[in-house]
């Protein structure tokens, strides 16, 4: 079971993911040779240009799709499907339209066979956490975009998995709500020791939240560099820390090069076609 | 406004008669045509019919120009105020062609009284078979209350034999080929037959619309005459000759039908010479329907229902 | 500021108008999930609004029943003026008089009861069989592979052609009649369920699976609710069929029932009674449909407000 | 680094396995919109993969035809061993011999042609009428208000009960037969179209309307494509009915046709020929269904891979 | 036509929008007394806490729903429905799943009866603009979240309306792609003189793009303040300008107060219910 180092929670081993796009002759390589170890209890931020394969990677870790080649292990066991140990917040919320906010949050708890009373309590608590008290009985279509996203966040938190996989969870939130949820998430992480993979487009957010920031290259996606983010202390306004700015800049530079590379690729494609 | 086929006043009489045929058998107008009796009248086949009531309804509504059915059905249609008139008989029961009411050899049913609480299969309700059974029960002296306890069950003729043998029915009504084939296989015995009950009798007649008769008197006369002569021909010629003729007609008309059943033809079953209709052939069913409460007693007389006026064989016979 | 001043007046003007034509129609009708564009209830305090609403409701009632009334009128008048043959299409009023007679002291209640038992049993069984089967077929490839060909063969084989086989195997009692209804009702439910399952938003399935839902739970909590609208379409079709096929179910070995009544009266030329039977069957079907619509609405409150 | 070294080996191990059971099943079958979890085609260069694939296809073919073969075997054997009465249910082989005879030099082609013309005309007309009507009803409240009650009345009135009225009004020629097919086929298409329109994602409608699409365009470019899966379910149901109702359509005044053949042979007790007719009708229905499935697939390439 | 000042393009006059939430007794007031004039050719950024009614307001301007009270005028004419003069980018992309990226972009052009050839050209051009060359023939479900959003942006730009209504159009994009699209949008705006209402959660983005930034209050949503953003010159790196920081802070403060107020409201609701 523990042939790998004890600190490795999620091992992503030379993973390749290929999509066959209908009639298109050659298959589309979304991920190639992705190698990444996420440590037990780590908060890993994942950044990369749009379309580089971040969501695809998360699906693989969640066990929702199988890699074309390579392997993903959790706690030393290869992933063969989804499990109660992993919770996921999808980029597109994925709420059940026929369930109220409350019932959506309770959904995962039903799967875990949490007793009804406790389910209700936990759902209420987590909806409150994301600032949706008073909206428990609303159906998704009666909520704003940001509210829906918050319901999805509340659902994953209430589900209380070992590993939390979050795909741009705060993208639709205003700055203040986002900040308070960042705090909340860090608090929960601190308290429970969850392992978190957190996809984001906010470099600030990545540096602020992540113990490490993994930067991906574009097409085919692979890990370009993993930046260790080490502050002397997390107390005080981290964002004001000059070290923060440095990290920020470093990640930004890595990403810019990638996006530039991607654009060159596109221009080429465009010109080669006429 | 349904007399679509009738000639308008002042116009020449209709010379082409639309009708529905019977798959695998030859009707008398077809025979008449083949024998050359029809003269200037042409027949126009519009398809095959599935049942007598449907056939006379088509005639009554002007979809066709003539149609035939069990006399009881004709009474009912007339009772519904349809302007029709029976002009000639076209089927019936005699010692060679009849319908029997069969039980299995080991059945405990021996008399009419044994039928109380039992199931009798008939092809359709309110028609020939039901009428015969009710008449049988009445003549056997059962009270109306007892008669009500005899259950009539609708079952397609094809399934009758099998249902009878499987015990789903206590009595099955069989006639024609189905009867012959079932009896060949053995194990069945008749409880009674319609010919035992009534003697030879004509059971069904051909009807025309009254307005059609009024507008086309010549055509009507020619038609009924030819019809009657064809019936007479079939009544008077040897069975083999009739069957051969039928087979020839079937082959000639090219309707892609199966001619094997024709080989089982035994007789016309028509009691009156040339299809002449007798009063009692309607009166029996009028009485039955009145008993059943389906028609008001006394409202219809046989004379309202049929006429032998166009039948050349009518002189002296009938009413 | 002049603009702002004029605002209340213009605002009133707009709210006095009927709601924007196209958007409102859409939001209310086609796209019930979207927020209603316009909320008259907010303004019920104004008498004019109330009056207008009443008027609108009344006019809708007229539109709703207009076509029906026209049909009924045609049925009454056309036979009387001789366009239809009165013998075979008696005026509606005559049929209704007969119907009333049959209902009060005739055999109609008995027929109705016999038919209802058959229809409801067959229909209920069809639901109980076809929905789970449809879910399974829509869901599990192996089940679909194994069963679809066979089911397609049966679906394309007329139950009426098979009637002899039916009676052969099941006898001529109630079993074969109920089976017959079941057989006819199953197909629309089955097909619609399969199609409902196949068009469930994949993200929702992904989401549920990510929360560790097993196949059974996934069925129950995601696939089923998501497929409800499609399933109900099938159920409503089946509801109508469960009544309509009585005519065949009661063709063999029946002693009572609406189908039997119709067939019997038809072959006996008791035309007004036949129409009384047809009217009863239609009314029954309508009632049934109404009931199913009610239930459907209950199942999808999240859509229809 | 030890981890990385071992990766290729483990990778091979995984790719040697069958794809993850549940996810693959789902992605491929229920949730065709999702990316296929697993792409065997990428690895066809390896012979073992190819062999495995062939084996899998073969085993699927067996599952697919298994149930059918069982049915056919039962049909052949049960009458022979006497479970069924051979007279009423002749063994399949006998029926097939008769069928072959009818086909080669018998009247089957003619019957087939007559029936096909009726079925296809009625079915085609039903599509041409019911889809637009369904779209209108699903879309425009006023149309729905005006027509729904009337249509519900007709939907709940058996065409068979109305057969006399049909022939009365339309005669006993082809018109009434085709109308009969049309009548029976319209309801599933209509209901499914209405329900398809009503469940179109409202955001898409909003989006299209924001681009200034008029009602007609909206129909054509949004509502119709979005409702296609639901409509096709109705069309497939109707496809089967168009063949099945031949039995009734050809009950009155028919000179040829498969329904006529079945009724005729049944009433004259030519049992094997009757089964030949039933087999032909079923085969026709199956073929028709296959064709419709093909067309449906063409209409929804965006879904199915 | 021009009873109002010539500079007013969109007039939002005392608008109120109320939703009836099923059985809930009292109706939910989403917007109340919203008053806002958008000038001809203006780039207005709209910010506000999640759920304050921004999307609702955009729907009203688009003519997709009718206000409960009040009025919206465009060029002096009251809005009675959607029109070809306004294009909208929805918060949730709203792509047609049965159309490829290319065909989705062409969609709006078909409505405008642009000839087929030109349609294809324009669609290609705009897909290239958002960096999606090579993905023209992909269906939405074959694209990443950010890519879908870019298709939606390309569609609205190709549609070329007078008024562009954008609901968090760049929310799902990485920093670099976002920046380059911001530039692109500004360039187009500059060139064509479109009037743009741009909802965003990025305060930086709002200040960077908007000539004015309208800040909304939460529940019921109304305009709290409209901040004029005036730089001496837009040349150079605006974000480095100290004035930029000031505006940023000002907007941030306005918003924070609002979010705090909203949270107080919620706590109250929570405690009052027990
Ligand atoms: N089902 C599919 N079929 C074909 N290609 C796909 C499919 N799903 C994803 N892709 C492609 O794979 C690549 C990676 O997609 P993915 O969704 O993982 O990107 P991402 O990093 O999450 O991007 P974003 O930040 O925009 O969400 C994209 O180029 C996308 O077009
Ligand atoms: N159909 C509806 N029925 C009931 N309430 C609704 C409906 N649509 C929106 N709301 C409510 O109206 C308020 C405003 O919603 P809106 O979508 O405009 O917010 P928003 O400002 O766009 O938020 P976000 O930034 O999170 O997208 C929210 O509280 C929402 O719950
Ligand atoms: Mg993504
Ligand atoms: Mg919004």
Can you characterise this structure?
The complex is a heteropentamer, with 2 copies of chain A (274 residues), 1 copy of chain B (319 residues) and 2 copies of chain C (305 residues). Chain A is an alpha/beta fold and 274 residues long. Chain A has 2 domains: 8-85 and 163-273, P-loop containing nucleotide triphosphate hydrolases (Rossmann fold, 3-Layer(aba) Sandwich); 93-160, no CATH class. Helix content of chain A is 39%, strand content 23%. In chain A, the strands form 2 sheets. Chain A has a 6-stranded mixed sheet with strand order 6-7-8-3-9-10, sandwiched between helices. The longest helix of chain A is centred in the C-terminal third of the chain and has 32 residues, at 242-273. Chain A is globular. The termini of chain A are far apart. In chain B, helix 1 (28-35) links the parallel strand 1 (16-21) and strand 2. Chain B is globular. In chain B, 39% of the residues lie in helices and 19% in strands. Chain B has helices spanning 28-35, 52-60, 71-79, 128-139, 144-148, 157-165, 176-185, 194-198, 210-215, 217-236, 239-253, 280-291, 302-305; strands at residues 16-21, 42-48, 66-70, 84-93, 99-104, 119-122, 151-154, 171-175, 188-193, 201-209. The model of chain B is unreliable at 1-7 (pLDDT under 50). Chain B is α/β, with parallel strands linked by helices and 319 residues long. Chain B contains 13 helices and 10 strands. In chain B, helix 1 packs across helix 10 and helix 3 (71-79) packs across helix 12 (280-291). Chain C folds into 2 domains: 49-89, no CATH class; 95-299, MetI-like (MetI-like fold, Orthogonal Bundle), CATH 1.10.3720.10. In chain C, helix 5 runs parallel beside helix 8 (174-198), helix 5 (108-139) runs antiparallel to helix 10 and helix 8 packs across helix 10. Chain C is 79% helix and 0% strand. Residues 1-46 of chain C have low confidence and may be disordered. Chain C is mostly helical and 305 residues long. Chains in contact: A-C, A-D, A-E, B-C, B-D, C-D, C-E, D-E. The structure holds adenosine-5'-triphosphate (2 copies) and magnesium ion (2 copies). One magnesium ion is lined by residues 54-55, 91, 167 of chain E. One magnesium ion (MG) binds at residues 54-55, 91, 167 of chain E. Chains A, E: It comes from Nonomuraea montanisoli. Chains A, E: Keywords: ATP-binding, Nucleotide-binding, Transport. Chains A, E: One of its GO terms (molecular function) is ATP binding. Chains A, E: Residues 10-243 form the ABC transporter domain. Chains A, E: This is ABC transporter ATP-binding protein.
């Amino acid at each position: 079971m523990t042939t790998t180092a004890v600190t490795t929670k999620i091992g992503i081993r030379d993973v390749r993911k290929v999509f066959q796009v209908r009639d298109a002759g050659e298959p589309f390589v979304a991920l190639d040779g992705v190698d990444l170890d996420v440590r037990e209890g780590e908060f890993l931020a994942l950044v990369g240009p749009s379309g580089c394969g971040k969501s695809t990677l998360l699906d693989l870790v969640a066990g929702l799709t199988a890699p074309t080649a390579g392997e993903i292990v959790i706690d030393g066991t290869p992933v063969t499907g989804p499990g109660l140990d992993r919770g996921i917040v999808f980029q597109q919320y994925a709420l059940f339209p026929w369930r109220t906010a409350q019932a959506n949050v309770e959904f995962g708890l039903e799967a875990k066979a949490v007793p009804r009373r406790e389910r209700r309590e936990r759902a209420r608590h987590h909806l409150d956490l994301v600032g949706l008290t008073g909206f428990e009985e609303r159906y998704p279509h009666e909520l704003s975009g940001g509210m829906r996203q918050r319901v999805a966040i509340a659902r994953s938190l209430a589900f209380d998995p070992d590993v939390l996989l979050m795909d741009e969870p705060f993208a639709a939130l205003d700055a203040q709500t986002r900040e308070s949820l960042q705090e909340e998430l860090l608090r929960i992480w601190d308290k429970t020791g969850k392992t978190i993979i957190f996809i984001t487009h906010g470099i600030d957010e990545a540096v602020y939240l992540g113990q490490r920031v993994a930067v991906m290259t574009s097409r085919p996606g692979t890990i370009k560099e993993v930046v260790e983010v080490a502050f002397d202390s997390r107390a005080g306004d981290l964002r004001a820390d000059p070290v923060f700015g440095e990290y920020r800049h470093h990640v930004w530079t890595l990403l810019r090069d990638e996006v530039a590379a991607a654009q060159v690729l596109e221009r080429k494609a465009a010109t080669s076609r006429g | 406004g349904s007399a679509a086929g009738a000639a308008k006043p002042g116009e020449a009489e209709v010379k082409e008669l639309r009708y529905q045929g019977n798959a695998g058998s030859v009707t008398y107008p077809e025979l008449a045509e083949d024998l050359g009796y029809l003269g200037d009248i042409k027949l126009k086949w519009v398809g095959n019919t599935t049942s007598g009531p449907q056939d006379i309804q088509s005639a009554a509504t002007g979809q066709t120009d003539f149609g035939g059915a069990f006399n009881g059905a004709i009474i009912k249609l007339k009772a519904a105020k349809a302007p029709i008139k029976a002009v000639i008989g076209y089927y019936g029961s005699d010692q060679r062609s009849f319908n029997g009411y069969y039980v299995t050899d080991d059945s405990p049913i021996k008399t009419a009284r044994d039928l109380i609480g039992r199931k009798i299969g008939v092809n359709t309700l309110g028609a020939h078979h039901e009428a015969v059974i009710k008449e049988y029960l009445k003549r056997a002296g059962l009270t109306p209350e007892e008669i009500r306890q005899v259950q009539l069950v609708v079952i397609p003729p094809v399934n009758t034999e099998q249902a009878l043998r499987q015990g789903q029915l206590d009595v099955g009504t069989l006639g024609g080929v189905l009867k012959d084939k079932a009896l060949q296989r053995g194990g069945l015995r008749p409880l009674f037959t319609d010919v035992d009950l009534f003697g030879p009798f004509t059971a069904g007649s051909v009807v025309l619309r009254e307005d059609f008769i009024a507008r086309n008197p010549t055509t009507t006369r020619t038609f009924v005459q030819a019809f009657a002569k064809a019936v007479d021909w079939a009544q008077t010629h040897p069975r083999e000759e009739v069957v051969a003729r039928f087979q020839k007609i079937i082959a000639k008309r090219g309707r892609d039908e199966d001619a094997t059943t024709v080989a089982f033809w035994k007789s016309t079953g028509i009691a009156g010479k040339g299809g002449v209709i007798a009063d009692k052939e309607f009166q029996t069913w009028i009485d039955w329907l009145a008993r059943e409460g389906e028609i008001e007693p006394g409202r219809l007389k046989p004379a309202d229902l049929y006429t032998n006026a166009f039948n050349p064989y009518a002189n002296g016979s009938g009413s | 500021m002049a603009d702002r001043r004029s605002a209340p007046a213009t605002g009133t003007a707009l709210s006095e108008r009927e709601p924007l034509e196209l958007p409102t129609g859409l939001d209310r009708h086609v796209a019930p999930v979207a927020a209603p564009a316009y909320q008259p209830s907010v303004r019920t305090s104004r008498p004019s609004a109330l009056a207008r609403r009443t008027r609108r409701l009344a006019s809708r009632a007229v539109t709703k029943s207009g076509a029906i009334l026209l049909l009924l009128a045609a049925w009454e008048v056309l036979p009387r003026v001789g366009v239809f043959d009165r013998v075979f299409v008696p005026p509606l009023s005559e049929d209704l008089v007969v119907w009333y007679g049959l209902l009060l002291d005739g055999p109609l209640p008995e027929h109705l009861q016999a038919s209802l038992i058959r229809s409801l049993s067959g229909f209920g069984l069809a639901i109980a069989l076809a929905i789970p089967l449809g879910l399974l077929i829509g869901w599990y490839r192996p089940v679909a592979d194994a069963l679809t060909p066979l089911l397609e063969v049966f679906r394309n084989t007329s139950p009426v052609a098979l009637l002899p086989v039916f009676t052969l195997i099941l006898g001529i009692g109630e079993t074969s009649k109920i089976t017959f209804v079941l057989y006819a009702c199953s197909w629309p439910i089955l097909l619609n369920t399969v199609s409902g399952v196949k068009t469930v938003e994949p993200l929702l399935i992904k989401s549920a699976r990510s929360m560790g839902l097993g196949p059974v739970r996934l069925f129950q909590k995601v696939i089923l609710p998501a497929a409800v609208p499609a399933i109900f379409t099938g159920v409503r079709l089946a509801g109508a069929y469960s009544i309509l096929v009585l005519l065949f179910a009661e063709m063999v070995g029946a002693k009572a029932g609406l189908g039997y009544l119709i067939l019997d009266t038809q072959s006996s030329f008791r035309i007004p009674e036949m129409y009384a039977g047809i009217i009863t069957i239609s009314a029954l079907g309508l009632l049934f449909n109404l009931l199913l619509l009610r239930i459907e609405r209950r199942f999808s409150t999240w859509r229809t407000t």
